[in-house]
Automatic annotation (TrEMBL):
The gene is Cntnap2_1. Keywords: Cell adhesion, Disulfide bond, EGF-like domain, Glycoprotein, Membrane, Repeat, Signal, Transmembrane, Transmembrane helix. Residues 220-384, 452-638 form the Laminin G domain. This is CNTP2 protein. GO terms for cellular component: membrane.
C-alpha cells in the first residue's frame, strides 16, 4: 500500500507482489514473502508464508497464541478470554481471505469437566470471535448456524446424547477439534472459554494459523474475441492517485487495453505495437505519454504484466521486468484527474480494441470482476480463451497441454505414452536373448543436461554424473510373458547399489533393492500371484526414502519399508536394462541365473522417474543417443495395460501351476486298460514315495527361507521369530489366508 507522501518509493522499487500465487509464477519456491494484497491501497505490505508444493498455493498467516494453551483450573472468573495477535492486521487478512478460493483454520478444545457448546439445547459456554468481531457458536469440523462439533456432524461423539465430546462433562480428558473453513468468518481473533468455575474443571485451547489456498483475483480473466469488443465499468476514481496493474497475452500487434475520458482529461493504456506499451493521460496540462519498449515481441501469446501508476508528483510504467519508465509531474498546473465517462476495457470510441486475454486487472487495489461482466457482454468471453483451461484434462498420463490459438495439443515427450492425448502405450516384443540398455548419461552430455532432462534428484548442477544419487524413484510399466525366471528391469549403478524387478522360477514377481547397509538385498515377494501367465500385468513402484509403495494390476497399493539398517540413497545410478543385464563387475547371484536365456515377451510404457527408455528407442528423441539395443526391437502393444478385470481363479486359469503334470510331465506311455495291476500298484507306491519326498523338501525349503529372511518381505536376519514374521504377513496381507489355501491345493494334488 502507499499514501501520497511516500508513493514515489513504490515507483523506484515495486518489490512486493500482490499474492503468493504471483510469487509462484515468478518461479519462487516455498518461503516467507512480503505481499501487498491491495497494491497501492492503504493496507500496506505483510509477511506471510507461501507454500508452493501443491498445484494451488497456500498462504499462511501466523499468530502468537501457543498451542495447547491452558485455561482454568479452579479459576474464580466466569469467563477466560484468549486473545490472538496476528502478524498482520484484520483488514490485511480479510484482503487475503476474500480473494482466496478456500481458507481454513484449525481449532481444538481439550477438556476435563469443562463443557464446550452445551449441546443439544443449552447456551454455549465457549465461543470464538471472528472477522468483524462477530461471535460464533460452532466448532472446528462444523459450519455456521450448526451448534455442533465435528463428532456431532459425524455422529461419533463419546456420548451420543451430546454433539460435542466435551459436552459429556467427563472427568477424563476429551477433545473436540477440526477445521473452521467458512472463510467469511475467519480469522479467529479471540476464544472465550466459559465452563471453568467448578473444582476439577480444566481446558486447553489450540488455534492453528490461517491458511488460504488459490487466488481468485489472480486468475480473473476475460477474452476479447473481436477488435470492437469491450467491457464497461463505473468511472475510475483516480483524481490524485492511480495504480493500475494487469496481465495480458495476445498475438495481435496493437490494441487499446483500457480508457476513461473526462471533458478534456483522460487516462489510457494501450499496446501501440508488437514491442511497445503506452500509458497516456491528461490532467489539464496537456497529454503526457510514457512508453516502454521491449527488446522482444509482446504479442507472443505469453502472459505479460503491466503496472502503471500516477500521483501528484510523478507517473511510471513498467512491463514485466523491463526497466521502469518514470515521468515527473510539472511543478505548476493541474493535478486532479477529472473523469466522467465509464471506464472501457477494450475497444473505446471506435478505436481498435485489444484482441486476446486480460486478467487480474486491479485499479487502485480493487480487482475488477472481468469474468462476471464478460458473461453478459457479446464479443467477450469469461475466462481465458486458452484451450488448456477447458481441455487440459484430456492430456493424460502426465502429458502437458500446449496452448494453440485454434486449439491445443498434448506434449507427451516427458511420458512413456504417445498419440494425440498421451494414452497410447509405447511397447515392444522381446525375443529370447534380446536386451535394451539406457545410459543415464551419454558421452558428450554434461551432468547439468542430464539433471535437467531426467530430473534425477540433484540440487547441484556442477557435480559429475556418477555423483548423482536418488532419494526416491517412481517406476511404472506393464508386461506379459509365459517364461520364468527372467529379469524384467534392472537399474545399475557405479556402486554396488541396484534395483531389480524379477519374475522368479515359480512365476511370482519380486522387487529387489540393494542400497547398502544390509548383508542381503531387500526383497518384496508377491508369492500368491502367478505373473508368467501370458496376461498383461501392470507394475507401479514408488520409493520415497525408506517407504516403498507397490501397486500391481488393479489390486490396492501395498506399503513396505526398507530395513532400519539400509541406506536410503540410491547412489550413482548408471544404466537401466530391460530383458537382460549386461553389466561389468559383480552381479547378484540370482539375477545372474535369471539372465539366461533372458526375457521373452512384451514390455510396455516403461517409465523410470522422467525417463521412458522404450519410447526413446522406438521414437527418435533427444534421448535416443542414450539407448543401446541388442537384437531387433519390434514395436508391439502386446504388453499394453491390462483391462481392469479380476484375475482368473486358480481353477480356470490355464497358466496356473495347479497340477503335478505342469511341473513333472509323464514321459511314459499312457496307461491303458490292459496294463497289469502290479505295475499300477508299483507306480502308486513310487508316486507316494515321490510325493512324501517332495512334501519334506517343501517344508525344509520353507523353513530355510524363513530363517534366511527372503520369505515375503526379507526381514533382517534373525530379527524376529518365524511366528512373528507370519503374524506380520497376516496383518499386512488380507489375501494371506487365501494364499495358504492355494499353496495347500498346489502341493496336495
Amino acid at each position: 500500500g502507499c499514501n501520497y507522501s511516500y508513493c514515489s518509493f513504490y515507483f523506484v522499487s515495486a518489490i512486493y507482489e500482490l499474492s503468493c500465487e504471483a510469487y509462484k509464477h515468478l518461479g519462487k519456491t516455498s518461503n516467507y514473502y512480503w505481499i501487498d494484497p491491495d497494491g497501492s491501497g492503504t493496507l500496506g505490505p505483510l509477511k506471510v508464508y507461501c507454500n508452493m508444493t501443491e498445484d494451488k498455493v497456500w498462504t499462511t498467516v501466523y499468530h502468537d497464541l501457543q498451542m495447547q494453551t491452558s485455561v482454568g483450573g479452579n479459576s474464580p472468573e466466569k469467563l477466560s478470554v484468549l486473545q490472538l495477535n496476528y502478524s498482520a492486521t484484520m483488514d490485511q487478512i480479510s484482503a487475503i481471505t476474500s480473494s482466496a478460493e478456500y481458507c481454513e483454520q484449525f481449532i481444538s478444545y481439550s477438556c476435563k469437566m469443562s463443557r464446550l457448546l452445551n449441546t443439544p439445547e443449552g447456551s454455549p459456554y465457549t465461543w470464538w470471535v471472528g472477522k468483524a468481531n462477530e461471535k460464533h457458536y460452532y466448532w472446528g469440523g462444523s459450519g455456521p448456524g450448526i451448534q455442533k462439533c465435528a463428532c456431532g456432524i459425524e455422529r461419533n461423539c463419546t456420548d451420543p446424547k451430546y454433539y460435542c465430546n466435551c459436552d459429556a462433562d467427563y472427568k477424563q480428558w476429551r477433545k473436540d477439534s477440526g477445521m473452521l473453513s467458512y472463510k467469511e468468518h475467519l480469522p479467529v481473533s479471540q476464544v472465550v472459554v466459559g465452563d471453568l468455575d467448578r473444582p476439577g474443571s480444566e481446558a486447553k485451547v489450540s488455534v492453528g494459523p490461517v491458511r488460504c489456498q488459490g487466488d481468485r483475483n489472480y486468475w480473473n480473466a476475460a477474452s476479447f474475441v473481436t477488435s470492437s469488443s469491450y467491457l464497461h465499468f463505473s468511472t475510475f476514481q483516480g483524481e490524485t492517485s492511480a495504480d493500475i496493474s494487469f496481465y495480458f497475452k495476445t498475438s495481435a500487434s496493437d490494441g487499446v487495453f483500457l480508457e476513461n475520458l473526462g471533458n478534456t482529461d483522460f487516462i489510457k493504456l494501450e499496446l501501440k505495437s508488437a514491442t511497445e506499451v503506452s500509458f497516456s493521460f491528461d490532467v489539464g496540462n496537456g497529454p503526457v505519454e510514457i512508453v516502454v519498449r521491449s527488446p522482444n515481441p509482446l504479442n507472443d501469446d505469453q502472459w505479460h504484466r503491466v503496472n502503471a501508476e500516477r500521483n501528484v508528483k510523478q507517473a511510471s510504467l513498467q512491463v514485466d521486468q523491463l526497466p521502469l519508465e518514470v515521468r515527473k509531474a510539472p511543478t505548476e498546473g493541474h493535478t486532479r484527474l477529472e473523469l466522467y465517462s465509464q471506464l472501457y476495457v477494450g475497444a473505446a470510441g471506435g478505436q481498435r480494441g485489444f484482441l486476446g486475454c486480460i486478467r487480474s486487472l486491479r485499479m487502485n487495489g480493487v480487482t475488477l470482476d472481468l469474468e462476471e461482466r464478460a458473461k453478459v457482454t457479446p464479443g467477450v468471453k469469461p475466462g481465458c480463451s486458452g484451450h488448456c483451461t477447458s481441455y487440459g484434462m484430456y492430456c493424460a498420463n502426465g502429458g502437458k497441454c500446449v496452448e494453440k490459438y485454434n486449439g491445443y495439443s498434448c506434449d507427451c515427450s516427458k511420458t512413456a505414452y504417445d498419440g494425440p492425448f498421451c494414452i497410447k502405450d509405447v511397447g515392444a516384443f522381446f525375443e529370447e536373448g534380446m536386451w535394451l540398455r539406457y545410459n543415464f548419461h551419454s558421452p558428450g552430455t554434461s551432468a547439468k543436461d542430464l539433471v535437467s532432462r531426467t530430473l534425477l534428484s540433484s540440487a547441484d548442477p556442477e557435480i559429475t554424473a556418477p555423483d548423482l544419487s536418488l532419494n526416491k524413484e517412481e517406476l511404472s510399466f506393464s508386461f506379459s510373458t509365459t517364461k520364468s525366471p527372467c529379469v524384467l528391469l534392472y537399474v545399475s549403478s557405479y556402486t554396488p547399489d541396484f534395483m531389480a524387478v524379477l519374475v522368479n522360477p515359480s512365476g511370482n514377481l519380486q522387487i529387489r533393492y540393494n542400497l547398502g547397509g544390509t548383508k542381503e538385498p531387500y526383497n518384496i515377494d508377491i508369492d500368491h500371484r502367478n505373473m508368467a501367465n501370458g496376461q498383461p500385468h501392470t507394475v507401479n513402484v514408488t520409493r520415497n526414502g525408506r517407504d516403498i509403495i507397490l501397486q500391481l494390476d488393479h489390486y490396492p497399493p501395498t506399503s513396505y519399508s526398507l530395513p532400519a539398517t539400509s541406506d536410503i540413497q540410491f547412489n550413482s545410478p548408471k544404466a537401466l536394462f530391460l530383458g537382460k543385464v549386461i553389466e561389468i563387475g559383480k552381479i547378484d547371484q540370482d539375477i545372474y541365473k535369471y539372465n539366461t536365456p533372458g526375457f521373452t515377451g512384451c514390455l510396455s510404457r516403461v517409465q523410470f522417474n522422467q525417463i521412458a527408455p522404450l519410447k526413446a528407442a522406438l521414437r527418435p528423441t533427444n534421448a535416443s543417443s542414450h539407448v543401446h539395443i541388442q537384437g531387433e526391437l519390434v514395436e508391439s502393444n502386446c504388453g499394453a495395460s491390462p483391462l481392469t478385470i479380476p484375475p482368473m481363479s486358480a481353477a480356470t486359469d490355464p497358466w496356473h501351476l495347479d497340477s503335478a503334470s505342469a511341473d513333472f510331465p509323464y514321459n511314459g506311455q499312457a496307461i491303458g486298460d490292459g496294463v497289469n495291476r502290479n505295475s499300477a500298484i508299483i507306480g502308486g507306491v513310487i508316486a507316494v514315495v515321490i510325493f512324501t519326498i517332495l512334501c519334506t523338501l517343501v517344508f525344509l525349503i520353507r523353513y530355510m527361507f524363513r530363517h534366511k529372511g527372503t520369505y515375503h518381505t526379507n526381514e533382517a536376519k534373525g530379527a524376529e521369530s518365524a511366528e512373528s514374521a507370519d503374524a506380520a504377513i497376516m496383518n499386512n496381507d488380507p489375501n494371506f489366508t487365501e494364499t495358504i489355501d492355494e499353496s495347500k491345493k498346489e502341493w496336495l494334488i
